Amino acid sequence: MSTAIAVVLLIALAAYAVFGGADFGAGFWDLTAGGPERGAEPRAVIERSIGPVWEANHVWLIFIFVVTWSAFPAAYQSIMLTLFVPLTLAALGIVLRGASFAFRKSVGTLRFRRVFGGAFALSSVLVPFFLGATAGGIASGHVPSGGEAGDPVDSWLNPTSLVTGVLAVVLAAYLAAVYLVWDARRLREYTMGEYFRRRALASAIVAAVVAVAGLAVLNAKASHVFDGLMSRALPSLILSVLCGSGALVLLMRYAGRGARLLAVLAVAGIIISWGIAQWPYLLPESLTVSGAAAPHGTLVTLLVAAGLAVVIVVPGFVLLYVLDQRALLPEEGTEDVGDRPITSGG
Q1: DSSP 57
Q2: Which Gene Ontology terms cover its molecular function (predicted)?
């Protein structure tokens, strides 16, 4: 039963990476778009692309925390006690990012739009870095088992955490650029489609370089995970590399839709490969999945709840994304028909 819950948790992590990660990556391109005049056009595409869905994507993160806390309380306690600094900074960044994205559309003066725009863009870069650093701290064995607190600094300011944090930022930027290629073309803004296509190609190459560097760091600092990647997780890792290479080829051939699917599979494959490589540990090499598991009744209840979520919640997500892709959702800040005052006829 604990294995089934671990699989559910890994799938949720991959979903948050490909959906929420792309939202953070859009903030990276917002940050690097340039001044108000030069960056106005790409920022407009970014706002129209993520506006209808950015709030919904954080449901995956909430689900991850709830499942980890309920199913693996011993691991959750150790992670929170040790990695409270990057996790707190990530939480603050998510709040700041959301508030800034909303307020930037509401303020009227350029100065305040710049302030909120800068806060949105900067937090969009810092949040995936802190989340990636958290993952690196876990993978490198800096989180002790038994509900004890590890070093609050070295646990996430170490070579594995730093390279994982940078990789998370680059992958988020890569995913966002690939998505924005398709969204720009869907909006018939072909100049912006080419703009983001070039950035998707560049970020794909940077991601490959950082990933190779990450393997070298894992070999030196997290040998258990590296050995797992080179053995039991190797098929998944190879599939991820092939999907990433295919996405790169399709981007070079201007095939945006196919590139988007392969990019999603490539990034999801990295998350899945990490989970397989770390198995059977939640905290390498001190706490296994079965050793950290809650009582059987709790795990059964969680599995039932996850099944209900698939039946009830996932269709809502699918509908949201379909409506968004078909441009059937109003932009944020536009007047809703239901908000209009009722007037008497005559």
Answers
A1: G
A2: electron transfer activity; oxidoreductase activity, acting on diphenols and related substances as donors, oxygen as acceptor
